[in-house]
Amino acid sequence: MSVDREESQTPMDETERLLGNGTVLTMDRSRPILHDGAVLVRGSRIADLGDRAELQHRYPAARWIDAAGGVILPGFVNTHTHLFQGLLKGLGDDRPLYRWLRDMTAPAASRLTEEHCEAAALNGALEAIRSGTTTVVDFMYAHPREGLTDAVVRGLQAAGVRAVVARGFITRGVDLGVPEALIEEVETALADVARLRSLHAGPADLVRIGVAPCLLWMIDQDALRATREFATGQDIVVTYHLAETSFEVEYARRTYGLPEAQVLEQAGFLGPDLLAVHCTKLDGDDIERLVARDVKVSHNPVSNMYLGAGIAPIVAMVRRGLTVGLATDGPASNNNQNMLHVLKYTALLHKVAHEDPTAMTADRVLEMATIDGARAIGMADEIGSIEVGKRADLVTVALDNPFAAPVHDPISSLVYAAVGNEVRTVLVDGRPLMQDGRLATLDEERVLERASSAARDLAVLAGLPSRLERQWRRYGTE
After folding, report:
1. Is 408 within a domain?
2. Measured between alpha carbons, how far is 356 from 353 in angstroms, rounded to an integer?
3. pTM exceeds 0.90, yes or no
4. Does 27 reside within a domain?
5. What is the DSSP letter of 180?
6. What's the domain range around 396?
7. How many other C-beta atoms can be found within 10 angstroms of the C-beta atom of residue 361?
Protein backbone atom coordinates (compact mmCIF):
# COMPACT_ATOMS: atom_id res chain seq x y z
CA MET A 1 0.00 0.00 0.00
CA SER A 2 2.88 2.39 0.73
CA VAL A 3 4.23 3.65 -2.58
CA ASP A 4 7.17 5.93 -1.82
CA ARG A 5 7.74 7.89 -4.98
CA GLU A 6 10.78 9.68 -3.54
CA GLU A 7 14.09 8.33 -2.33
CA SER A 8 13.99 6.48 0.97
CA GLN A 9 14.63 8.84 3.87
CA THR A 10 16.27 7.27 6.90
CA PRO A 11 16.72 8.92 10.31
CA MET A 12 20.32 9.76 9.23
CA ASP A 13 19.29 11.33 5.91
CA GLU A 14 20.61 14.88 5.73
CA THR A 15 18.85 15.90 2.51
CA GLU A 16 18.36 19.68 2.39
CA ARG A 17 15.08 21.14 1.17
CA LEU A 18 14.27 24.82 0.95
CA LEU A 19 10.62 25.90 1.10
CA GLY A 20 10.10 29.44 -0.09
CA ASN A 21 8.26 32.01 -2.18
CA GLY A 22 5.52 32.50 0.37
CA THR A 23 4.53 34.03 3.68
CA VAL A 24 6.02 32.04 6.57
CA LEU A 25 3.74 31.83 9.62
CA THR A 26 6.20 30.68 12.27
CA MET A 27 3.80 30.28 15.23
CA ASP A 28 6.76 30.57 17.62
CA ARG A 29 6.57 32.48 20.89
CA SER A 30 6.87 35.96 19.36
CA ARG A 31 4.81 35.00 16.26
CA PRO A 32 6.99 36.68 13.60
CA ILE A 33 5.59 36.57 10.07
CA LEU A 34 8.20 36.35 7.31
CA HIS A 35 6.93 37.90 4.10
CA ASP A 36 8.71 36.38 1.11
CA GLY A 37 10.39 34.06 3.57
CA ALA A 38 11.89 30.60 3.37
CA VAL A 39 12.51 27.58 5.61
CA LEU A 40 15.48 25.23 5.29
CA VAL A 41 14.91 21.60 6.23
CA ARG A 42 17.90 19.36 6.82
CA GLY A 43 16.93 15.73 7.24
CA SER A 44 14.05 15.62 9.72
CA ARG A 45 14.67 19.02 11.33
CA ILE A 46 14.22 22.71 10.60
CA ALA A 47 17.74 24.06 10.13
CA ASP A 48 17.24 27.72 9.18
CA LEU A 49 14.60 30.29 8.28
CA GLY A 50 14.58 33.85 7.07
CA ASP A 51 14.49 35.94 3.91
CA ARG A 52 14.03 33.86 0.76
CA ALA A 53 16.76 35.53 -1.28
CA GLU A 54 19.27 35.21 1.55
CA LEU A 55 18.53 31.54 2.12
CA GLN A 56 18.63 30.72 -1.60
CA HIS A 57 22.07 32.32 -1.74
CA ARG A 58 23.21 30.52 1.42
CA TYR A 59 21.95 27.06 0.39
CA PRO A 60 22.21 26.84 -3.42
CA ALA A 61 22.24 23.02 -3.44
CA ALA A 62 19.04 22.60 -1.41
CA ARG A 63 16.06 21.07 -3.18
CA TRP A 64 13.63 23.91 -3.91
CA ILE A 65 9.97 23.61 -2.89
CA ASP A 66 7.95 26.51 -4.27
CA ALA A 67 5.09 27.80 -2.09
CA ALA A 68 3.73 29.64 -5.14
CA GLY A 69 3.10 32.87 -3.28
CA GLY A 70 0.94 31.19 -0.65
CA VAL A 71 1.70 30.43 2.99
CA ILE A 72 4.19 28.14 4.70
CA LEU A 73 3.15 27.05 8.17
CA PRO A 74 3.41 24.23 10.69
CA GLY A 75 1.19 21.27 9.88
CA PHE A 76 -2.13 21.15 11.69
CA VAL A 77 -2.53 18.97 14.79
CA ASN A 78 -5.90 17.20 14.81
CA THR A 79 -6.31 16.48 18.52
CA HIS A 80 -9.25 14.06 18.27
CA THR A 81 -10.72 11.64 15.78
CA HIS A 82 -11.97 8.07 15.45
CA LEU A 83 -10.47 6.88 12.18
CA PHE A 84 -12.54 3.70 11.89
CA GLN A 85 -15.61 5.90 11.53
CA GLY A 86 -14.38 6.93 8.09
CA LEU A 87 -16.26 3.85 6.89
CA LEU A 88 -19.54 5.24 8.28
CA LYS A 89 -19.79 8.66 6.66
CA GLY A 90 -23.39 9.71 6.07
CA LEU A 91 -25.01 6.91 8.09
CA GLY A 92 -25.60 8.87 11.31
CA ASP A 93 -27.00 12.19 10.15
CA ASP A 94 -29.60 14.10 12.15
CA ARG A 95 -29.41 12.08 15.38
CA PRO A 96 -28.40 13.07 18.90
CA LEU A 97 -25.23 11.46 20.23
CA TYR A 98 -26.91 8.67 22.21
CA ARG A 99 -28.98 7.45 19.25
CA TRP A 100 -26.04 7.98 16.91
CA LEU A 101 -23.98 5.66 19.11
CA ARG A 102 -26.66 3.10 19.90
CA ASP A 103 -28.23 2.72 16.45
CA MET A 104 -25.30 3.16 14.09
CA THR A 105 -21.80 3.50 15.50
CA ALA A 106 -21.87 0.79 18.16
CA PRO A 107 -23.30 -1.95 15.90
CA ALA A 108 -20.62 -1.15 13.32
CA ALA A 109 -17.85 -0.97 15.91
CA SER A 110 -18.76 -4.41 17.21
CA ARG A 111 -18.12 -5.95 13.76
CA LEU A 112 -14.79 -4.30 12.94
CA THR A 113 -11.96 -6.33 11.43
CA GLU A 114 -8.29 -5.54 10.89
CA GLU A 115 -8.96 -4.87 7.21
CA HIS A 116 -11.69 -2.36 8.09
CA CYS A 117 -9.40 -0.53 10.50
CA GLU A 118 -6.35 -0.41 8.25
CA ALA A 119 -8.40 0.73 5.25
CA ALA A 120 -10.07 3.44 7.35
CA ALA A 121 -6.74 4.62 8.77
CA LEU A 122 -5.27 4.94 5.29
CA ASN A 123 -8.32 6.87 4.13
CA GLY A 124 -8.15 9.16 7.17
CA ALA A 125 -4.45 9.75 6.62
CA LEU A 126 -5.18 10.62 3.00
CA GLU A 127 -7.74 13.21 4.13
CA ALA A 128 -5.25 14.56 6.65
CA ILE A 129 -2.48 14.98 4.10
CA ARG A 130 -4.76 16.56 1.52
CA SER A 131 -5.95 19.17 4.05
CA GLY A 132 -2.63 20.01 5.72
CA THR A 133 -2.78 17.90 8.87
CA THR A 134 0.53 16.35 9.90
CA THR A 135 -0.41 14.97 13.34
CA VAL A 136 -3.53 13.00 14.22
CA VAL A 137 -4.81 11.81 17.61
CA ASP A 138 -6.88 8.69 17.01
CA PHE A 139 -9.17 7.65 19.88
CA MET A 140 -9.54 3.93 19.07
CA TYR A 141 -12.13 2.62 21.54
CA ALA A 142 -13.64 -0.34 19.64
CA HIS A 143 -12.05 -3.74 20.27
CA PRO A 144 -14.41 -6.61 19.45
CA ARG A 145 -11.30 -8.63 18.56
CA GLU A 146 -7.54 -8.40 18.94
CA GLY A 147 -5.26 -6.57 16.55
CA LEU A 148 -7.44 -3.61 15.61
CA THR A 149 -5.20 -0.91 17.05
CA ASP A 150 -2.24 -2.58 15.35
CA ALA A 151 -4.14 -2.29 12.05
CA VAL A 152 -4.72 1.44 12.60
CA VAL A 153 -1.01 1.90 13.33
CA ARG A 154 -0.07 0.03 10.14
CA GLY A 155 -2.23 2.31 8.04
CA LEU A 156 -0.82 5.48 9.59
CA GLN A 157 2.74 4.23 9.26
CA ALA A 158 2.21 3.46 5.58
CA ALA A 159 0.99 7.02 5.02
CA GLY A 160 3.85 8.58 6.99
CA VAL A 161 1.80 10.93 9.16
CA ARG A 162 2.63 11.62 12.79
CA ALA A 163 0.06 10.25 15.23
CA VAL A 164 -0.95 9.48 18.76
CA VAL A 165 -3.02 6.31 18.64
CA ALA A 166 -4.87 6.22 21.95
CA ARG A 167 -5.90 2.64 22.69
CA GLY A 168 -9.36 3.13 24.15
CA PHE A 169 -11.69 0.83 26.00
CA ILE A 170 -15.21 0.38 27.37
CA THR A 171 -15.93 -1.47 30.62
CA ARG A 172 -19.72 -1.18 30.91
CA GLY A 173 -22.91 0.10 29.27
CA VAL A 174 -24.75 -2.99 28.03
CA ASP A 175 -27.89 -1.75 29.79
CA LEU A 176 -27.62 1.46 27.74
CA GLY A 177 -27.13 -0.24 24.38
CA VAL A 178 -23.40 -0.96 24.22
CA PRO A 179 -22.83 -4.30 22.44
CA GLU A 180 -21.36 -6.99 24.68
CA ALA A 181 -18.57 -7.46 22.13
CA LEU A 182 -17.16 -4.02 23.01
CA ILE A 183 -16.93 -4.60 26.77
CA GLU A 184 -13.44 -5.26 28.17
CA GLU A 185 -11.80 -5.64 31.54
CA VAL A 186 -9.63 -2.64 32.32
CA GLU A 187 -6.70 -4.94 33.07
CA THR A 188 -6.92 -6.43 29.57
CA ALA A 189 -7.06 -3.01 27.94
CA LEU A 190 -4.13 -1.57 29.91
CA ALA A 191 -2.03 -4.66 29.21
CA ASP A 192 -2.63 -4.08 25.51
CA VAL A 193 -1.63 -0.43 25.87
CA ALA A 194 1.62 -1.59 27.48
CA ARG A 195 2.20 -4.08 24.65
CA LEU A 196 1.64 -1.42 22.00
CA ARG A 197 3.92 1.04 23.77
CA SER A 198 6.70 -1.55 23.80
CA LEU A 199 6.41 -1.74 20.01
CA HIS A 200 6.24 2.00 19.33
CA ALA A 201 8.46 3.72 21.87
CA GLY A 202 11.55 4.63 19.84
CA PRO A 203 12.62 8.24 19.30
CA ALA A 204 12.20 7.83 15.53
CA ASP A 205 8.66 6.42 15.79
CA LEU A 206 6.10 8.73 14.22
CA VAL A 207 3.31 6.84 16.00
CA ARG A 208 3.03 7.13 19.77
CA ILE A 209 0.59 5.13 21.86
CA GLY A 210 -1.87 6.74 24.28
CA VAL A 211 -4.66 5.47 26.51
CA ALA A 212 -8.34 6.39 26.27
CA PRO A 213 -11.11 5.34 28.65
CA CYS A 214 -14.17 6.15 26.57
CA LEU A 215 -16.79 8.19 28.46
CA LEU A 216 -18.56 8.25 31.80
CA TRP A 217 -21.47 5.91 31.15
CA MET A 218 -19.14 3.41 29.48
CA ILE A 219 -16.41 3.51 32.16
CA ASP A 220 -16.58 2.84 35.90
CA GLN A 221 -14.58 4.75 38.49
CA ASP A 222 -12.31 1.79 39.20
CA ALA A 223 -11.26 1.89 35.55
CA LEU A 224 -10.57 5.62 35.79
CA ARG A 225 -8.40 5.06 38.86
CA ALA A 226 -6.58 2.18 37.19
CA THR A 227 -5.90 4.33 34.14
CA ARG A 228 -4.52 7.13 36.27
CA GLU A 229 -2.28 4.71 38.16
CA PHE A 230 -1.06 3.23 34.87
CA ALA A 231 -0.38 6.59 33.24
CA THR A 232 1.32 8.43 36.08
CA GLY A 233 4.99 8.91 35.30
CA GLN A 234 4.68 7.23 31.89
CA ASP A 235 4.87 10.24 29.51
CA ILE A 236 1.69 9.10 27.82
CA VAL A 237 -1.30 10.98 26.43
CA VAL A 238 -4.50 10.17 28.32
CA THR A 239 -7.66 11.22 26.53
CA TYR A 240 -11.34 11.06 27.46
CA HIS A 241 -14.73 12.35 26.25
CA LEU A 242 -15.80 14.89 28.90
CA ALA A 243 -19.27 16.41 29.23
CA GLU A 244 -20.08 16.14 25.54
CA THR A 245 -23.89 16.28 25.78
CA SER A 246 -26.72 16.74 28.27
CA PHE A 247 -27.01 12.95 28.46
CA GLU A 248 -23.60 12.72 30.19
CA VAL A 249 -24.48 15.61 32.52
CA GLU A 250 -27.71 13.92 33.58
CA TYR A 251 -26.02 10.53 33.92
CA ALA A 252 -23.32 11.96 36.20
CA ARG A 253 -25.85 13.65 38.48
CA ARG A 254 -28.16 10.64 38.53
CA THR A 255 -25.39 8.11 39.19
CA TYR A 256 -22.92 10.08 41.31
CA GLY A 257 -24.84 13.15 42.43
CA LEU A 258 -22.05 15.34 41.03
CA PRO A 259 -21.02 17.16 37.86
CA GLU A 260 -18.88 14.95 35.65
CA ALA A 261 -15.70 16.98 36.13
CA GLN A 262 -16.07 16.54 39.88
CA VAL A 263 -16.55 12.78 39.44
CA LEU A 264 -13.23 12.69 37.60
CA GLU A 265 -11.62 14.85 40.26
CA GLN A 266 -12.74 12.51 43.03
CA ALA A 267 -11.35 9.54 41.07
CA GLY A 268 -8.00 11.32 40.86
CA PHE A 269 -8.24 11.23 37.08
CA LEU A 270 -7.55 14.88 36.24
CA GLY A 271 -3.97 15.83 35.42
CA PRO A 272 -1.66 17.64 32.98
CA ASP A 273 -1.43 14.56 30.75
CA LEU A 274 -5.22 14.48 30.24
CA LEU A 275 -6.65 15.64 26.92
CA ALA A 276 -10.34 16.23 27.65
CA VAL A 277 -12.48 16.10 24.52
CA HIS A 278 -15.60 18.21 23.79
CA CYS A 279 -16.34 19.78 27.22
CA THR A 280 -19.51 21.42 25.88
CA LYS A 281 -21.33 21.26 29.22
CA LEU A 282 -18.69 22.60 31.59
CA ASP A 283 -19.49 25.56 33.84
CA GLY A 284 -17.17 28.01 35.56
CA ASP A 285 -16.45 25.71 38.50
CA ASP A 286 -15.64 22.86 36.13
CA ILE A 287 -13.24 25.07 34.19
CA GLU A 288 -11.46 25.99 37.41
CA ARG A 289 -11.01 22.28 38.19
CA LEU A 290 -9.34 21.83 34.82
CA VAL A 291 -7.20 24.93 35.28
CA ALA A 292 -6.01 23.76 38.70
CA ARG A 293 -4.69 20.52 37.20
CA ASP A 294 -3.51 21.88 33.85
CA VAL A 295 -5.87 19.63 31.89
CA LYS A 296 -5.72 20.11 28.12
CA VAL A 297 -8.87 20.45 25.98
CA SER A 298 -9.75 19.28 22.47
CA HIS A 299 -12.42 21.44 20.82
CA ASN A 300 -14.54 19.74 18.14
CA PRO A 301 -16.93 22.42 16.87
CA VAL A 302 -18.10 20.73 13.67
CA SER A 303 -19.00 17.49 15.44
CA ASN A 304 -20.67 19.38 18.29
CA MET A 305 -22.83 21.22 15.77
CA TYR A 306 -23.53 18.08 13.73
CA LEU A 307 -24.82 16.21 16.81
CA GLY A 308 -26.51 19.25 18.35
CA ALA A 309 -24.37 18.69 21.43
CA GLY A 310 -23.81 22.30 22.42
CA ILE A 311 -21.11 24.95 22.30
CA ALA A 312 -18.03 24.42 24.43
CA PRO A 313 -17.06 27.48 26.53
CA ILE A 314 -13.75 27.72 24.73
CA VAL A 315 -13.45 31.49 25.01
CA ALA A 316 -13.72 31.27 28.80
CA MET A 317 -11.22 28.41 28.84
CA VAL A 318 -8.67 30.28 26.75
CA ARG A 319 -9.05 33.40 28.87
CA ARG A 320 -8.38 31.30 31.98
CA GLY A 321 -5.19 29.98 30.41
CA LEU A 322 -6.22 26.46 29.46
CA THR A 323 -4.50 24.90 26.47
CA VAL A 324 -7.13 24.25 23.80
CA GLY A 325 -6.43 22.37 20.58
CA LEU A 326 -8.77 21.82 17.65
CA ALA A 327 -10.11 18.63 16.13
CA THR A 328 -12.42 17.20 13.52
CA ASP A 329 -13.78 14.32 15.62
CA GLY A 330 -14.58 11.10 13.79
CA PRO A 331 -15.62 11.13 10.13
CA ALA A 332 -19.08 9.81 11.06
CA SER A 333 -19.93 13.00 12.95
CA ASN A 334 -18.38 15.66 10.76
CA ASN A 335 -18.33 14.11 7.96
CA ASN A 336 -14.71 14.67 6.92
CA GLN A 337 -11.27 15.25 8.40
CA ASN A 338 -10.62 18.70 6.96
CA MET A 339 -8.96 20.88 9.60
CA LEU A 340 -9.28 23.99 7.43
CA HIS A 341 -13.04 23.67 7.86
CA VAL A 342 -12.53 23.39 11.62
CA LEU A 343 -10.52 26.62 11.68
CA LYS A 344 -13.31 28.59 10.05
CA TYR A 345 -16.15 27.04 12.04
CA THR A 346 -14.30 27.59 15.32
CA ALA A 347 -13.97 31.30 14.67
CA LEU A 348 -17.52 31.76 13.40
CA LEU A 349 -19.23 29.62 16.04
CA HIS A 350 -17.80 31.61 18.93
CA LYS A 351 -18.38 34.97 17.30
CA VAL A 352 -22.08 34.21 17.04
CA ALA A 353 -22.30 32.45 20.41
CA HIS A 354 -20.93 35.57 22.11
CA GLU A 355 -22.51 38.02 19.67
CA ASP A 356 -19.03 39.50 19.49
CA PRO A 357 -16.88 39.37 16.33
CA THR A 358 -13.73 39.70 18.46
CA ALA A 359 -14.53 36.69 20.67
CA MET A 360 -12.47 34.39 18.43
CA THR A 361 -10.09 35.59 15.73
CA ALA A 362 -8.33 34.03 12.75
CA ASP A 363 -4.94 34.39 14.43
CA ARG A 364 -6.16 32.69 17.61
CA VAL A 365 -7.71 29.67 15.90
CA LEU A 366 -4.52 29.21 13.89
CA GLU A 367 -2.60 29.04 17.16
CA MET A 368 -5.07 26.47 18.46
CA ALA A 369 -4.64 24.33 15.34
CA THR A 370 -0.83 24.33 15.49
CA ILE A 371 1.24 25.18 18.56
CA ASP A 372 -1.60 24.73 21.07
CA GLY A 373 -2.49 21.39 19.51
CA ALA A 374 1.13 20.33 19.91
CA ARG A 375 1.08 21.52 23.52
CA ALA A 376 -2.12 19.57 24.15
CA ILE A 377 -0.34 16.30 23.37
CA GLY A 378 2.94 17.17 25.08
CA MET A 379 4.88 17.80 21.87
CA ALA A 380 5.29 21.59 21.79
CA ASP A 381 9.07 21.21 22.07
CA GLU A 382 9.10 19.16 18.86
CA ILE A 383 6.30 20.34 16.56
CA GLY A 384 3.65 23.05 16.19
CA SER A 385 5.87 25.97 15.19
CA ILE A 386 8.62 26.76 12.71
CA GLU A 387 11.78 27.06 14.79
CA VAL A 388 15.33 25.90 14.23
CA GLY A 389 15.79 22.45 15.74
CA LYS A 390 12.15 21.42 15.66
CA ARG A 391 10.77 18.57 13.61
CA ALA A 392 10.05 19.58 10.03
CA ASP A 393 6.28 19.05 9.99
CA LEU A 394 5.40 21.72 7.43
CA VAL A 395 2.73 22.51 4.86
CA THR A 396 2.35 24.99 2.05
CA VAL A 397 -1.05 26.35 1.09
CA ALA A 398 -1.59 28.12 -2.23
CA LEU A 399 -4.07 30.97 -2.18
CA ASP A 400 -4.18 31.73 -5.92
CA ASN A 401 -7.58 30.16 -6.52
CA PRO A 402 -11.17 31.41 -6.91
CA PHE A 403 -12.02 30.68 -3.26
CA ALA A 404 -9.17 32.59 -1.61
CA ALA A 405 -8.07 35.19 -4.16
CA PRO A 406 -7.61 38.10 -4.20
CA VAL A 407 -5.53 38.05 -1.02
CA HIS A 408 -5.25 41.12 1.18
CA ASP A 409 -4.46 39.25 4.42
CA PRO A 410 -2.91 35.75 4.13
CA ILE A 411 -4.09 34.64 7.58
CA SER A 412 -7.63 35.77 6.90
CA SER A 413 -7.60 34.02 3.53
CA LEU A 414 -6.26 30.82 5.09
CA VAL A 415 -8.84 30.68 7.89
CA TYR A 416 -11.97 32.15 6.30
CA ALA A 417 -11.57 31.45 2.58
CA ALA A 418 -9.53 28.29 2.03
CA VAL A 419 -11.54 25.09 1.58
CA GLY A 420 -8.82 22.43 1.70
CA ASN A 421 -7.75 21.71 -1.84
CA GLU A 422 -5.30 24.62 -1.64
CA VAL A 423 -2.79 22.50 0.32
CA ARG A 424 0.10 21.79 -2.05
CA THR A 425 3.00 20.34 -0.06
CA VAL A 426 3.12 18.38 3.20
CA LEU A 427 6.28 17.33 5.03
CA VAL A 428 6.40 15.16 8.14
CA ASP A 429 9.78 14.76 9.82
CA GLY A 430 11.24 16.36 6.71
CA ARG A 431 9.83 13.69 4.40
CA PRO A 432 7.49 14.88 1.63
CA LEU A 433 4.14 13.12 1.87
CA MET A 434 2.78 15.38 -0.85
CA GLN A 435 4.60 17.83 -3.10
CA ASP A 436 2.93 20.26 -5.48
CA GLY A 437 -0.31 18.34 -5.01
CA ARG A 438 1.20 14.94 -5.86
CA LEU A 439 1.08 12.27 -3.18
CA ALA A 440 4.40 10.58 -2.40
CA THR A 441 3.42 7.78 -0.02
CA LEU A 442 -0.11 6.76 -0.98
CA ASP A 443 -1.87 5.60 -4.11
CA GLU A 444 -5.00 7.73 -3.79
CA GLU A 445 -7.16 5.67 -6.13
CA ARG A 446 -6.26 2.45 -4.36
CA VAL A 447 -6.85 3.95 -0.90
CA LEU A 448 -10.31 5.18 -1.89
CA GLU A 449 -11.25 1.88 -3.52
CA ARG A 450 -10.12 -0.06 -0.47
CA ALA A 451 -12.02 2.21 1.92
CA SER A 452 -15.21 2.01 -0.16
CA SER A 453 -15.03 -1.78 -0.25
CA ALA A 454 -14.43 -1.96 3.50
CA ALA A 455 -17.30 0.47 4.14
CA ARG A 456 -19.76 -1.62 2.15
CA ASP A 457 -18.65 -4.77 3.92
CA LEU A 458 -18.92 -3.24 7.39
CA ALA A 459 -22.38 -1.82 6.72
CA VAL A 460 -23.64 -5.26 5.68
CA LEU A 461 -22.05 -6.96 8.70
CA ALA A 462 -23.58 -4.37 11.06
CA GLY A 463 -27.01 -4.53 9.42
CA LEU A 464 -26.95 -0.84 8.53
CA PRO A 465 -29.31 0.00 5.66
CA SER A 466 -27.81 1.48 2.52
CA ARG A 467 -28.84 5.06 1.74
CA LEU A 468 -27.56 5.10 -1.81
CA GLU A 469 -31.11 4.94 -3.17
CA ARG A 470 -32.93 6.61 -0.31
CA GLN A 471 -36.04 8.72 -0.76
CA TRP A 472 -36.45 12.39 0.07
CA ARG A 473 -37.15 13.08 3.75
CA ARG A 474 -39.42 16.02 4.42
CA TYR A 475 -38.23 18.41 7.09
CA GLY A 476 -39.66 17.60 10.52
CA THR A 477 -40.13 13.89 9.87
CA GLU A 478 -37.95 10.93 10.82
Report:
1. yes
2. 8
3. yes
4. yes
5. G
6. 16-74+388-439
7. 16
